[in-house]
Design a protein that fits this description.
Chain lengths: ~325, ~450
């Protein structure tokens, strides 16, 4: 009896050792060499697998980042600068901080601003609607309101406002992954810097994509950009351009002074993150353009806002 | 007489040919006409007139801008007022030539009389050139340039010319009316195309719900000196007027996926195209007129019409001449109720392929809320191309382009049978249509890449 037990234990132990040796040999022989840094990088990724970086998921991004000679072309919009700093530390690369971005809906064609001229009864999808016709308003450029962007957002940052019929971005949830940008057949969503500096959230943008001439655009939508160019003239920083009857504010140049907001006759320019203050035009008495510093005093006296920025003197004087 | 039909799928909607007894009336000319430069499949035509030019009816105002493109002619005499983009029926901007109508003076050489010319004196090349010069395009819906279709690639031989008089879409009666009123002209047109194609067998295929048309064509055939042209009665079934379905019904041959009808020896032309070919070749009259039906289930019978319109007439003008848009119209459709396009812009102008103004009531057109697919398979049964629409819908939702191509989404003819037969009211075709466009784009890009690689 005792003998049987001993033999059993001995044979099983021997068998175990033998198989362990086989496994050890197989593991050595067929070992897949993988950079251990891939695992390390993957660990610091957000793990959303959203595809915002352009790769299939966080693992794919980690593999690509490890292989790449630098991190210039690889950026995780969800994790942002924090994650990228960690990735750079692991890989020993340099990484320059990118300004945080946010999705901005560039259409203000709410039900009140942009009357519906027909009733869409097809499949509830912007892609389908865009393929069928120019839309249920007279503006062929604006939001179609079927919510493809809402469906595309993996972070729950987008919702359709039932009153205006337009998508609304929840900035606290938006990671700027760009899924909504890709899903919109009209291309009205743009990723813009969240603020003029990484610290603030001051933004100014043209909330319109209408490239029709002023009259046509205005007829279609009360809040359309009519391409009048007033904003271009008032901008001191050369951030605004008008092309194809549509104004565009370059967020890398914009300092968020907000003067274009006051100039826009249709309210197509929107501000976010701050309340702009209007700088009153200089009285006509002030002659030729002087340097900003000496001119500031009389302006400050005349204008109610003490924080007034110097205005575009040439133009305003000419108009007065 | 034998009765034929295509072999798979299809549905039987009520034919509702309400305007079948309305004779073709000629519409008076409006004050302004807008001639679209994109009235045909292929590249939009290039205008060759300038603002302020005086034009005559039938004068060329735009030239083809590619191999698959067509001439466009002025529909009336007058002055060119502008050349600018204008919204078409779907609201998209298309270049139009605006003509302030001053009269109805035609260019020289156009025979406007009603006398029937039966002798075909021109030879093959001359006929093709005349068809091209007169801007004839297929009037069955696709508006493919006819001279290209009648000139098959070398090596392929046409065995059978099929004249499509199926008019399987409910409501539409324009083809039926021209079969009754222009019977002989259509047959001469068929004989001309037969000559171009080298004297192949010719079948005029008409659905059985138009017995008067069938007997009219039979009688006219007996009195005309052409041989090898027969009339064929087909069972009523939608989409019998589809090119591949018609070839299946008439010749019992199937065109393979991605193939052209000529690959099985068939050439299909609409009866309205045959009439246009007759007018072009025998009368030298370019394609500036066509027939359209004004009908719908919310339009009283006395307000229904079949009109001979000129291209460039605004739809709103035609609607006004016809007695105004009925109050109860919930949807206005250009084309048949199955494949037609909803009109979002009534100021749009008619084009060569316009075939109807259809006023549909709320009850017949409003869609019901969609529920979940229960895999009953009715869409697959109804699909005349043998596809599985429910599967295509799922693959599209998953964004699986490879899967869609394997499931042959590119063969979809967009007939709408799947959507019509779905008990869950899922707008299947709405989703499949953009998926098809996407896959076609991939296939074209691949072909272009392969061609470029071969060139190297």
């Amino acid at each position: 009896m005792t003998n049987t037990i001993i033999w059993t234990i001995a044979i099983l132990t021997l068998l175990g050792v033998l198989l362990a040796l086989v496994l050890f040999w197989v593991a050595r022989k067929f070992r897949v060499e993988e950079d251990p840094r891939i695992d390390e990088v993957e660990k610091v990724m957000p793990g959303a697998n959203c595809g915002g970086c352009g790769f299939a998921g966080c693992r794919a991004f980690a593999e690509a980042a490890v292989k790449a000679p630098n991190l210039d072309n690889n950026f995780c919009p969800v994790g942002g600068n924090d994650t990228m700093a960690k990735v750079a530390a692991i890989l020993g690369y340099e990484v320059s901080a990118k300004a945080p971005q946010v999705a901005v809906v560039r259409c203000n064609g709410s039900c009140a601003n942009r009357p519906r001229v027909n009733d869409y009864d097809g499949a509830p999808s912007c892609k389908v609607k865009a393929a069928l016709y120019s839309g249920d308003t007279l503006c062929p450029y604006g939001c179609l309101g079927c919510g493809d962007c809402v469906a595309a957002c993996k972070f729950g940052a987008l919702s359709l406002d039932p009153e205006s019929g337009l998508p609304v971005v929840d900035e606290s949830k938006c990671t700027a992954c760009g899924s909504c940008v890709k899903s919109c057949p009209k291309g009205i969503i743009e990723l813009r810097n969240a603020g003029t500096t990484p610290k603030n959230t001051r933004r100014v943008y043209v909330s319109c994509m209408n490239k029709d001439k002023g009259g046509v655009a205005r007829k279609a939508c009360k809040a359309a950009c009519i391409g009048c160019g007033k904003c271009v003239k008032v901008c001191k920083f050369g951030a605004i351009t008008v092309e194809n009857n549509l104004s565009y504010i370059d967020y890398t140049k914009c300092k968020a002074c907000g003067q274009c907001y006051f100039e826009c006759p249709t309210g197509a320019i929107h501000v976010a993150g701050f309340t702009p203050k209007k700088v009153e035009p200089k009285p006509a008495a002030a002659p030729a353009p002087a340097a900003a510093a000496p001119a500031a005093k009389p302006v400050a006296a005349a204008a109610p806002e003490p924080k007034a920025m110097s205005n575009n003197q040439n133009k305003e004087v000419g108009n007065a | 007489m034998r009765k034929v039909t295509f072999s798979i799928g299809g549905i039987h909607p009520h034919d509702s040919k309400l305007s079948r007894d309305c004779k073709i009336e000629v519409l008076p000319l409006p004050q302004t006409m807008y001639v679209s430069m994109a009235q045909h499949l292929g590249a939009p035509a290039t205008p060759i007139v300038n603002v302020g030019d005086k034009v005559l009816a039938g004068q060329v105002i735009a030239e083809p801008a590619g191999f698959i493109s067509a001439y466009v002619h002025s529909p009336a005499s007058g002055t060119v007022k502008s050349i600018a983009p204008r919204a078409d029926i779907t609201g998209r901007m298309v270049p139009h030539v605006e003509i302030a109508v001053e009269g109805d003076e035609w260019v020289e050489g156009v025979d406007l009389s009603d006398t029937l010319v039966t002798d075909i004196t021109l030879d093959r090349a001359q006929i093709l050139e005349r068809i091209k010069q007169c801007g004839i395009v297929g009037l069955g819906g696709a508006t493919f340039p006819t001279h290209v279709k009648l000139n098959p690639a070398p090596g392929s031989k046409a065995e059978c010319l099929i004249l499509n008089g199926a008019e399987c879409e409910p409501y539409l009666t324009s083809d039926y009316r021209i079969l009754l009123e222009k019977t002989r002209e259509i047959i001469v047109g068929a004989a001309i195309m037969q000559k171009v194609l080298g004297g192949c067998h010719t079948v005029i295929a008409i659905e059985e719900n138009k017995p008067e048309a069938i007997s009219a064509v039979s009688e006219a055939l007996a009195s005309l000196p052409y041989s090898d042209i027969e009339v064929l009665s087909m069972k009523k079934r939608y989409p019998q007027g589809g090119e591949k379905q018609l070839i299946d019904a008439v010749m019992k041959r199937q065109v393979k996926s991605g193939g052209l009808p000529i690959s099985v020896g068939a050439v299909v032309q609409n009866v309205a195209t045959a009439l246009a070919v007759y007018e072009a070749v025998q009368k030298n009259k370019p394609l500036v007129t066509n027939t359209m039906t004004i009908t719908g289930d919310c339009l009283p019978v006395e307000k229904q019409h079949n009109y001979l319109f000129r291209i460039g007439m605004p739809l709103s003008y035609i609607a006004q001449v016809a007695g105004g848009v009925p109050e109860s119209a919930a949807k206005i459709v250009s084309g048949g109720p199955m494949m037609g396009k909803a009109i979002s812009n009534m100021d749009a102008a008619t084009v060569k392929g316009s075939s109807s103004l259809l006023y549909l009531s709320e009850g017949s057109t409003r869609r019901h809320p969609a529920s979940n697919c229960i895999r009953c398979g009715r869409c697959s049964d109804a699909c005349p191309m043998g596809l599985e629409p429910f599967l295509l819908n799922r693959l599209n939702k998953a964004g699986d382009l490879e899967g869609l191509e394997k499931a042959s989404v590119q063969d979809c003819i967009e007939c709408g049978c799947c959507l019509y037969s779905c008990p869950a009211n899922i707008p299947l075709l709405d989703y499949i249509r953009p998926a098809k466009a996407q896959v076609m784009g991939v296939i074209r890009a691949r072909a272009a890449a392969a061609k470029a690689a071969q060139g190297k």
